C-alpha cells in the first residue's frame, strides 16, 4: 500500500503545542478565578460579621467589671462620726474574711455614709440609746428601708457599737445576698418566672357552674395597691380580673378520690387541673410574663373539693400562678372578709413566683421591702449572665450552621445588647440599681431579638444541595470538558 | 409564709371617684319563616362591659365580669374604640328573602371583613396599632386576619362611619382613624364559631347559645356572624364597651329534614315523587311539583340541640320569638321534651321567655308554609360582575335597581380593589334605564350632567404593592330607574412569590358595600355585592428552575463547542483517516500485547 506524504500525520510543532497549553491554562484560570468566585458570590447567603471577639471577652470578664456597693446612710452628731469610719473598716475586713472563705463572684461592698438618705430607695440606719443596760435591740421596719439599732449602756461602754452595726448589716440584712455571691445558696427555685420589667397579673374567679356570682373588686384593688407597692419601683404592673362561668376542670369527676365525703385532688391530678384551652387564660396581646391567680368554685356535684395535704386548699403552679379552691360561698357573693385570707395566700404565692427570698431568721430580714431589693439586685447579675449566654449561643449557632444567613439587623441587636450590658454594669457600679435593672432587661430583650430573628432561621430551608442540583447542568459539563483537557495536557 | 397586710390603713382615692359599673348580658332568638320553605334564625347577644377608663394611666386595674377578657386587653392595647367583624358565607337572595335582617347592619359579604376605629396621635402610629390589632384578632378568631396589611387596607370616608357615642361625649386625646379590610377568600367554618361562643359568658353551655353547633350553622343556605364592639358613654367618667354578637342564618327546612332522614343524598323513590297530576305521569314520566307546604320542624332538627335551661348569667330572661302568620303557623314550646305545651301562636310576634333549668324545644308547625308575613322589599338591589376575557385587561360592571315607583334612593357605593387591578376611572360610564319603558341614556364621567346622579365621589388610586384603589361614589337613583356603572382596568403582573397557593383558581375581589342613606345622612340600609373572581396571567411555578437549568445547559453546550474548537488540533481529513487506521482498537491492543510480552522477555533475559 502506497502512502502519500500528505496522509501522514506529522508530529505537532512545539509552538502549537505550547500555544494549546496556554489556551487551556487561560480558560481554566478564567473559570477558577472569575467564574467560580462570581457563582459563589451571587448564590451565597449573606452573613454579616458577628463581633465574636467582643462577646467572648465580655463573657469572660463581665463579672470582674462589676464593683457594686450598697449604701447605708447613718445620721450621727459630729462627736460620734468617728464611729462611721470605724464601722466601715470593720465591714471591709469582715467582708474580706468572708470572701477569703468562699470567694465572691463579683466585687461586693457595703458603704456607710454619713447623712440622711438621698432617696426612698436608700437604707437609713438610726442609732437609739436604751435606758436599760442590757436593752440592746434591733428593729427593721417592714414597710420602709429603715433600720433602728438600739444600743444599751453595755454596748457603748465596751465600744462594741461598730461591731453591733456591722453585725446587723451583714448578718441580719444582707446575709442572703452575701451567701448568694459566695455561691452558698442557689437562687433558682424553679418557681420563678423569667424576669422582665413588665408583669401582668390576672385574678380569676372561676365557677364550675353558671350561677352568677359577684365579688368585691374594689377591696381587691385596695389590697393589691398595698401588696404590690414594693414592686412598683422595679416593675410595670398591670392587673386584670375576670369572672368565668362553666369553667370545668380538666379532670373527670369519676377519677377523683372520695374521702370523708370530700373529693380529693391528689398531686397527680394537680398538674392537669388547669384547663388551658377553655379557661381563656392565655393572652394573645403580649409576650410579657403573666401570672394567673385562680379562685376556683367547683360546681355543686363536685363539692367539697379538697387539695390533698394542703392547709389552705391551694396550690402553686411553677412559673404560672396559684390556685385556691373555695367550697363555701354564701349568697353567691365573695365579700371583703372572704377575699382577704385568699388574697393573703395569693400575695405569698406572688412573692414566690417573682422569686423574692422567703423570710428565714438570720438569713433574710422580715421586711418584704428589703427582700424585694435583694432579689432585684441579684436579678441584675442574673439578667446580665443570661444576655451574655444568649450572645454566646448565637455565636455557637452561627458557627454550627453554615447555611443560615445573618442579616445586618442581627448585628444591630447584638451591638445594642452589648451596649446595654456595659451600661447596666456602669449603673450598677454607681449604685443606680433601678436603671441598671432596666438596662439589663433591655440587654436580654435585644439579645433575644438577635437570637430568635426569624429571617435568620428560615434560610435553613434552602440548603446547599438544592443549589447544586439546580446548577448541575452548567457545572457538570464544564467540569467534564476541562478535566478531560487537563488530562490530555498532562499526558503530553 | 403569709404577708399580712390586714392592718394597713390607706384610704384609696380611686374607689370613691369611680363607682365601677358592672356589666350586663342579654340574649334573644328570632325565627322568621320565609317563602319556599326557608326559615331565618337570628341570634342576638348583647354584652355591656364594666366601666373602662383609657386615659387614666395611673390605674393598673381592669375588671371583666361578663365582657370577655380575651377581647378587652386587645382593644385597650391597640387603642381600638370601635371594632366590627363579619364572617359570612353564601349569597342573600333578596328576591326570595326580601331585605337583609336588621337592614343589613349585621351582615357581611362572603369571607371575613373587619373594620375598626383606632385612636392615635398620627397615621403611622394608627397603622401600627391596626396591624397589631388584626394580628391579635387572628389568634383569637382562628382566621387569617394576620394577612391583613396596608396593601389591602383602606380608610373609608363615607361608608362604615363610627356609630359609638363616645365621639360626642368624650374629648379624645388623639385623632380617630377608621381602617377597613376584607379577606374574601377566607372559608368560614366551625373554628370561627368556637371563639365566638367563648366570648359569651355562658360559653354555649346554657341559654340560647347552647343551640349553636358549628356543623349545623355552617350547613345553612346563607349565614352571617357578626361581632360589633362600640364604646358608649353616659358621661365623661362612665364609658363602657357594648359588644353585640349576632348570628343570622337561613335554613331550608325541607333540605334539613331530608338530610336528617338520609345523611347521604339519595334520589327520591318513585312512590314518593310529587308529580303534576294534570300532566302525563306513570312509571317513566313525572313532571315534579314544587315542595309540599306541610312543615313540622323543631330546634333539634335545625340545630341538632335543644335549649339547655335558662341562661343564669343574663340580666334579663332570654327570649325566643317567632314572626309568623298566626292564622296558619303554630308555635309550640316543649319543656323537658314533654308537651307541657305552650302554644303561643295566637298573638302576632309571639315570644317565649325561658326560665328554670328544664330543657326547652320549640316547634314550628304549619300546613301552609307558603303563607308568611309580607316580605320587606330592599330599597335597592345591586349586582356586580367582571367583563372582558383577555389576560391583560378587563372591565367591571355594577348594576343598581331602584324597585320603588315613588322614592328616589341616595346611596354610597364603596369598593376597594387590589393593586393588581389598574383602574381607569376616566372610562367610567353611567347608563340610566327606565324600568318600565326600557329607555336608556349613557352618561360618561367626563360629562357634566352626571353630577345630578353622582354628586360626589372619592377616589384614591392604587399604588403598586402599597395600597389598593379605593372608590366611594355618592349616587342618586331616581324612582323606577336602573343604573349601570362600567369601567375598564388592566391586569398587572405579579411577582413569582406574590401568587397565593392554587393561583389558577383566580383572585377573589372583595365584595363592594352599598349604603343607603336618608335625607339626614342616616344609614337606613346596607348591602354587599358578591365577590368577583378575577383571573390573572398565572405562570407555571416550576418555571424559574426550568429557566436556570435550560440556560445552564445551553451555556454548557456553547462552552464545550468553542472550547474544543480552540484547543484541539486541526488536521486534513486524509491525515485523520490515516491516524485512525494506525490507531484502530485492534492495532492498539496488539501493540499493547507486544509491549507487555517484550517486557516479560526482558525480565527472562535478566
UniProtKB/TrEMBL annotation, chain A:
Tagged with keyword Cytoplasm: no
What GO CC annotations are associated with the protein? GPI-anchor transamidase complex
Q: Which residues cross the membrane?
A: 21-41, 468-487
| UniProt topology in membrane | Multi-pass membrane protein
Which keywords appear in this protein's UniProt record, sorted alphabetically? Endoplasmic reticulum, Glycoprotein, GPI-anchor biosynthesis, Membrane, Transmembrane, Transmembrane helix
Which GO BP terms apply? Answer: attachment of GPI anchor to protein; GPI anchor biosynthetic process
Name the pathway: Glycolipid biosynthesis; glycosylphosphatidylinositol-anchor biosynthesis
Spell out the Pfam families in the cross-references. PIG-S
Q: Where in the cell is it found?
A: Endoplasmic reticulum membrane
Does the keyword field hold Transmembrane?
A: yes
> Which family does the entry's similarity section mention?
Belongs to the PIGS family.
Q: What is this protein called?
A: BA75_00507T0
Q: Which species is listed as the source?
A: Komagataella pastoris (Yeast)
Report which gene this protein is encoded by. GPI17
TrEMBL record, chain B:
* Assigned GO CC terms: GPI-anchor transamidase complex
Q: Which residues cross the membrane?
A: 545-567
| Name of the protein described by the UniProt record | BA75_02763T0
The signal sequence is: 1-19
Which InterPro entries does the UniProt entry name for this protein? PIG-T (IPR007245)
Q: Which keywords, in A-to-Z order, does the entry hold?
A: Membrane, Signal, Transmembrane, Transmembrane helix
What are the top taxonomic ranks of the organism?
Eukaryota, Fungi, Dikarya, Ascomycota, Saccharomycotina
GO terms for biological process?
A: attachment of GPI anchor to protein
Q: Provide an example Pfam family for this protein.
A: Gpi16
